[in-house]
Write a structure and sequence with these properties.
- Strand 3 (32-38) and strand 4 (43-49) form a beta hairpin.
- The protein has strands spanning 2-4, 10-13, 32-38, 43-49.
- Helix content is 0%, strand content 41%.
- The protein starts with a strand and ends with a strand.
- The protein is an all-beta fold.
- It has one domain.
Length: 51
């Protein structure tokens, strides 16, 4: 899992396992981010607006 800021810098990266479904974003500043999850044969991205 990677989290990118609006200009494309990776501000956080960690490996998630099947038992962990939570992503703690409390340390991130209030702004827009892109969360990118990547598996063996897939990639999903979400926009996160932290206000």
């Amino acid at each position: 899992m990677q989290i990118y800021n609006a200009i494309g810098d990776c501000v956080r990266q960690e490996e998630l396992n099947k038992r962990t479904n939570d992503i703690d974003v409390s340390s991130l500043s209030k702004r827009v981010y892109i969360i990118k999850l990547t598996g063996d044969n897939w990639t999903v991205q979400w926009k996160l607006s932290k206000v």
